[in-house]
Amino acid sequence: MKKEDISALIVYVLIIALAIVFGVVILQNRTAPSSMATVPYAFFIVGAILVGVVFNSIMYEVAHIIGAKIGRYDILKVNILGFCFYKTEDNKFKFRFQSFDGLTGETKILPKKDAKKEPNPKPYLLFGTVFFVIELAICVTLFVLFNLETNPVLADIGYFLLVVMFIGGMIFIYNVIPFKLDSTTDGYRLTLVSNPKNKVAFNELLRVEHELSLGNKDVEIKTFDTITNFTADLNLNKVYILLEKEDYDNALVLINQILANKNDISGKVYIRALAQKVYIYFMTLPLDEASKLLDEEVPVEYRREISKDDYMVSSRAYILLAGLIDKSKSECILTINNIQKAFKRTQQSRRGIEIKLFNKALDKVIEAHPDWNFDQYHLKELDESDKKK
């Protein structure tokens, strides 16, 4: 299990434990008279939980929108529990159902082109906390006031608000964690943009990913000499452009720069940069030369990490390792069976390129093992409507 997965598990366990304590200490032992003599109390709690999830999900994205506007950003997309409102090329908003990177939603932003100052991401990342503090103050105050009264209806409303606030607190805890979980949290990004270099890289990454999502393959991409998770990811966008153009030498320069700063980036960023290098060796060198270099630079423990990483960059590297070095048909099939899962995890702006790169890797394996009958596993190229989603 990876570090990020362990961290996410710990946070989920903490949230569940707090929920149990809240239920036992606050809800189960309430002494106020209830107005719901004929309504099961469980229905009341379930209703409050549902309202809490919906209300707080909306609240957090509204907070992101307001913070983004204050920070001088344009809104590209707002996704709340899968209900997605996105901006079209003619600056109109449309609706569709779509997955998201977050616990309850996601707001995609873009630095304003006409901003007089460098856009500041901190309000966008902090306003979820500000809104929750306001919610906390209001709900606790009303709870205390309503429970001072003898009116059972007011008492029930107070407990209802308390549950809504508690759900907001659970989302708040998840969002303020200062490290990466199974999705990217505001707290994690705040720790990164506290570095001035990361602040510039954050805005550049937003701009580049937006341009790539529009199909602009000639977008100018600024690269950074100071390597962090943000700057590494930004440099990897340039690597993708170079790979599509088969400019492998310049791609290797950027990849080696990332790998040389192993202590300054997360394990996943390092493994994916290493996977890019594995791919380039197979694409550019005779098999015996590639095998020799990989033995020197990619030891077995790193190959295992690449095999376990469910992302396209690692999947296409591992299918080459399994098919050309290990000559394992079963390992290749395992990778192929997981490829759709890996594809769904891929950033929209990188999907078209990843399809081409994976198909090239698969062609290498097919060439070496024509009797494996892998031709049917080529990924279908995206049409124009898919590229713009």
What does this structure look like?
This protein has 389 residues and is of the alpha+beta class. 65% of the residues lie in helices and 6% in strands. It contains 16 helices and four strands. It has a four-stranded antiparallel beta sheet with strand order 3-2-1-4.
Number of strands: 4
Largest sheet: 4 strands, antiparallel
Strand content: 5-15%
Q: What coarse outline follows from CA principal-axis ratios?
A: elongated
- For the record, give the distance between the C-alpha atoms at the N and C termini, rounded to a whole number: 32 Å
Count of individual helical segments: 16
Please outline what is shown here.
The chain is of the alpha+beta class.
